[in-house]
Amino acid sequence: MTRLSIGVVVVLGACAADEHAAVTSNAITSGTAIDYAEDWQTHWYAPDTGQRGPNTYSHSGDYVYWAGDDSAHPAQYEAVSDCSYFVDMTMEKAYAWTPASLAAWLCPSDLPCTRPLAKHYYNAVMHSSNFSVVPKVAQVQRGDLIAVLYNSPTNDAHNFSGTGDTGHVMWVDSAPRSAGTATDAGGATIYLYDVDVIDSSSTYHYNTDSRYTNGNLQGIGKGTVRLIAYADNDVAGYRWSTLSSSTSYINGDGQQRWTVVGRYSGPGSGSSGPGVGALISQAQFDQMFPPSTRVAGWDYNSFVVAAGESRFAGFASTGDTSMQKRELAAFLANVAHETGQLSDLVENTTAMYCDSSQSYGCPSSYGYKGRGPLQLSWNYNYHDAGAWLGIDLLNSPTQVGSTPSVGWETSLWFWMQSEGASYGHSPMTSHAAMTSGTTPAGFYQTIRIINGDLECGQPAGSEGANERADRVSYYNSFVSILGTTAGTNSTTYCP
Asked: In terms of CB atoms within 10 Å, which of 11, 161, 288, 296 comes out highest?
């Protein structure tokens, strides 16, 4: 069976309607799209004290009002909408999109529309347009969008055929929860994960859905779907509900439904900063790491999704925009040096890098040589990174250099959590070196943390000094690409 692994926006129902007017007043005054979705469904399904207006699924006559939006009923939450219109309205609320700007973004000339349908959101995710694909189920988090494309022989929204529903879209409202295993049509094991979602639908997601328990049975509500993965944990499909007989729709299985998960990275994204996707474009990333030479899979999407995980909060989102860009440039400059601009993710050595004094030892025969974007080395780093990330890297270290999501996560762990080789030299993490204090330590301290005396303090002309100079060269180049300056970077930390 051919199967496609793609990200997280769930598209399930038809999304067609007339042009709509922008809304101006909110029940909550700030938040992300999922916050507005949660606010609407929480208030509507609360015991009715006058806040509950219509809540109907429809492809025409669309409107979604939060309390204060409808002057005739200022206390009411009201909706007549389909799946994509509901997503439209949460995007307008959270990120200041307008009907015109949404259409300009989501309805390109080769996929025109009056207003965005489910297939247009699916297309935006697949083409990384203000969304980043979330490849692994384990990476899915609250606020991601699940998009499903209907009636297409391929994973290309341009190949949609028919006049019915183009797909379905829904906001993720929980982390995935393991729900056991099943088998696909060919007998292969599939892994099931329950994910809470908020969407507008003509029906409900089984008997725990708020639409079912309330008796409304349709419209906007909160329920649970199941994402499907194989052993590699790539998003491979979905089930509409947790009902055991719910059909498995797997990418490429001939049923002509394609599932992708996306994380919004466009204007206004992120509550603690602009988000990595807003600091660096795919074109800039490709300039730093040319596609012609980097290893397949280690691309813009894989980095932006990992960097956007909530457990790395603060990365490239601390301080003002200049500080955020400097930290991003510093991280990527060290990656470029360590991997030849992502052309080699595994160190060419037979050394085992085993510290036998550690109680857990070195159980893997593959050893603990440098792997991944920052070349994670030594058994104790594999142990500590794995424990923090919830991955058994001590017994399975090779995935750091072969699986982009794991590689980026271990490198971000090191950057955010490890003081590395900075002991005795103002110990701190690389994140702190680029962000702490009125005048941060700066880029030279990240070199100290990553490689210590192998580069710092080495005389001019030596291999260590040349390595250090190469990192600095990348850093100066990358801050220029990102449109900022190098800032203060004291060589006191790494002379």
From this structure: 11
- Tell whether 183 and 259 lie within a shared domain: yes
* Cα–Cα distance, 373 to 379 (Å, whole number): 17
Q: Other CB atoms closer than 10 Å to residue 477's CB: what's the count?
A: 15
Catalytic residue ranges: 338
Q: Are residues 134 and 240 in the same domain?
A: yes
pLDDT, one tens digit per residue, over 115-153 is: 999 999 999 999 878 888 898 998 999 999 999 999 999
H or E segment at 51? none
The pLDDT confidence band at residue 269, using thresholds 50, 70 and 90, is low
Mean pLDDT of the region 430-457 = 93
Contacts 24+ apart (CB under 8 A), 412-416: 412/306, 412/307, 412/309, 412/312, 412/315, 413/385, 413/388, 413/389, 414/374, 414/376, 414/381, 414/385, 415/315, 415/331, 415/374, 416/312, 416/314, 416/315
- Render pLDDT for 372-417 as a digit per residue (tens, 0 to 9): 999 999 999 999 999 999 899 999 999 999 999 999 999 999 999 9
What is the DSSP annotation of 340-405?
TTTT--B---------TTSTT----TT----BTTTTB-SHHHHHHHHHHHT--TTT-TTHHHH-HH
Indicate the SS3 state at residue 126.
Answer: helix
Distance CA 456, CA 448 (A): 6
257 and 143 within one domain: yes
203-235 residue pLDDT tens: 999 999 999 999 999 999 999 999 999 998 999
Do 84 and 180 lie in one domain? The reply is no
| Cβ neighbourhood burial of 108 (10 Å; 0-12, 13-18, 19+) | middle
Q: Is residue 230 part of a domain?
A: yes
CA distance 72 to 74: 6
Query: Are residues 237 and 136 located together in one domain of the fold?
Result: yes
In a domain, 196, yes or no: yes
